[in-house]
Design goal:
Chain lengths: 192, 75
């Protein structure tokens, strides 16, 4: 084996530096990625496993990431793909009950009805416990929940969510709308 | 059902800041004049904020260290 040339040594050092920078940026985002991951799967343990698989893959294929683009979205794209591939999702067929056929204001109307008087719109949500929100979200079927979690918890744009899930923007919008309705329908059941 | 069912779709995009400037102005003009939608808009905003708070869960302690172990070892 011949000694590496100066040029090769320089290039290797540069690649190592880029890789380290990538790894550090990805780790800095891990709590934000976790916050989304936690609600894409059913349990904390599953979320931990999925995070480790995601980071293992991200660190292996870091050169596929284009610097300057949205790294959090890139990581979540890996994560959602792994989540789907692993067949982790116990797909629950959306029950075609009337639950998601209520209008957007169903929960509001239900809360108002329970209160018996016009509501303080900003305070009324406090009637719902935090636990009931987490549980209601877990009941939203996966396809809809993925979008709700990415947009409402991850604060991604429709375009980012479309890219992460590899679906058209129109599908993001319709799933989001329906997913939120299902979520509110589930919450309204609690109020009843 | 409320009287403003046709506003629902626009409301979502308005809340998500996905409308064009012209559409935003149209939606805001409607909200200015419609108490029904305004109250529900306020409700939607606080519900969304609450969902975000309620679902916010810290990463378990130790997970970041486990992730860091997956880094490519330095030569």
């Amino acid at each position: 084996m011949s000694e590496p040339t100066q040029e090769e040594t320089r290039r290797l050092a540069e690649t190592a530096r880029d890789r380290i920078r990538f790894e550090e940026e990805a780790l800095d985002l891990s709590d934000q990625v976790y916050r989304v991951a936690r609600h894409l799967v059913g349990s904390r343990e599953e979320a931990e496993d999925l995070m480790q698989e995601t980071y293992a893959r991200a660190f292996r294929s870091w050169q596929q990431y284009t610097p300057g683009t949205n790294l959090r979205a890139w990581l979540l794209r890996i994560l959602t793909n792994l989540n789907i591939d692993r067949g982790r999702r116990q797909q629950r067929t959306p029950a075609m009950t009337s639950i998601d056929e209520h209008g957007d204001y169903y929960l509001y109307d239900k809360l108002e009805e329970a209160e018996g008087k016009p509501l303080d719109e900003e305070r009324v949500v406090e009637r719902l416990s935090q636990g009931s929100i987490v549980e209601a979200l877990a009941h939203v079927p996966h396809d809809f929940r993925d979008v709700v979690v990415l947009v409402d918890i991850g604060e991604f744009s429709y375009a980012d969510a479309a890219q992460i899930l590899d679906i058209p923007i129109g599908t993001v919008m319709s799933r989001l709308h329906r997913g939120r309705r299902i979520l509110k329908g589930e919450l309204a059941e609690e109020v009843a | 059902m409320g009287p403003c069912e046709e506003c629902e779709q626009v409301m979502q995009e308005y809340l998500d800041r996905e409308l064009s400037q012209a559409e935003v102005e149209k939606a805001e003009a409607h909200l200015d004049g419609c108490a029904y939608c305004r109250r529900r808009y306020t409700f939607e905003v606080s519900l969304r904020r609450y969902v975000r708070v309620a679902t916010s869960e810290q990463m378990p302690p130790g997970l970041k260290a486990k992730l860091a172990l997956l880094r490519t070892p330095l030569d």
